[in-house]
Input
Amino acid sequence: MKKKSMIPQYLQDELSNLVQKKNAYTEEDIDQLSRDYDYVLKQREQLKEAEKYGAIPKEEAAITNLTLMVKQFIIQETTKDAVRYLEQEKERLDKKIKELEQGN
Output
């Protein structure tokens, strides 16, 4: 059995979508990352509850939890990258403004 097939399809799809958003640098993208992060935290909490009451097999819970941890990490790193990019962009624009002001 392939390891990828052990991860539920909906989680594979969500991970794939996150990786495609790796260069999410607009305000809308960052807002979506925030919502995605909140959703992952909610999913992890629901998973804990389901596992606590035996509603999900332990192996499936472990795989799902690991996948959610990866999702959370990707979102965190993408958000950090976006913040760095926006800070650099702000510095670039500030320099351009100063150049224009000095030219006038």
About this structure: Residues 53 and 100 are 64 Å apart (CA to CA). The helical segments are 9-20, 27-52, 58-103.
